[in-house]
Amino acid sequence: MTSSPGSPSVVVIGAGQAGLSVSFYLRRLGLEPGSDFVVLDRGPGTGGAWQHRWEALRIGSAHHINDLPGMDELGISFDTADRTLPAKDVVADYYARYEEHYELRVRRPVDVKRVFNRGTDLVVGFESSGGIGALETDVVVNATGTWGSPFIPWYPGFNDFAGRHVHTTNYESAAEFAGQNVVVVGGGTSAIGFLLELEGSAESLTWVSRRPIEFLDEGELNMEAGAAAVAAQDEAARSGRALPSIVSGTGVPRTRRIQAGIERGTLVAKPMFSSIEAHGVRWADGTFQPADAIVWSTGFRPELRHLAPLKLREKEGGISVGGGSSWKDGRIFFAGYGPQASTIGANRAGRQIARQVVALLSNL
Predict the structure, then answer these.
(1) Is the pTM of this model over 0.85?
(2) Which residue has the higher pLDDT, 315 or 108?
């Protein structure tokens, strides 16, 4: 492994909403993109995880996408974006314009493999089209999100299933499930989106969830539940435990589209099955549902494998993070982690993390 020319003070890993937000504020605080700080992104193009989402997903049917800080200077906003185009294309376009306007000089595709210590320096080892390389740095901002670490719970018979297991990351369109018996697992908006899209293609649809679904009337915002869900994420991050689900504490908005799906019987969830068999799933009471495919809309886990050499993980399974930085190593910051995972949370945290990074650098 050879060191790449130049030693930036900061390396930001990831150019999704969190990474771009931190980069914006680092630049605003006087750091020069490409020299004082470098942004590395694994994706082939702009848009973060959005570039990988399924074709039918539209901005109006997804979670609200908050604008990045300073996006108003470009005269664009997700609030007024074209809702007839795939969300993946709109986000990729807006992020590309954003990167160009603020001259963030994101390097891609660069796949960070590990971060480790070399004396008093941090070293970011990566692979790119130019080969294997490394950057020495003082501070790392990890903004890798969760898309690269999908979670599928294990059930008895999982490996015996003769059909297809499909996670959200592998879902492309309803056409690939035409004429099939499909079971969708999950209680969030992605699962609901899949069900509404598959309704016109699949031979049969079965929705199962590991928890009851709470539908909120359109326009209703359960602030108390939302605050409690964020607080639970924050507490888990501070204590180094695995992060809980946000949607499980906030519920699903009952839009007109969702209400229509409920009335048609499409959006009526069954309790979780107890086992998987070669040609379907079975509940504890013996009920059997034939299945050609199981779509697992069961979420993600933070993508942290590349940080393993730093030994930050606690025995509880997570990493202790408070105020955006690791409690074990104050040189490692986490953007978009825990309560920061939403677009608005990532934007707020971006400012806080950038200020902390600059303060740390001034003391080195």
Answers:
(1) no
(2) 108
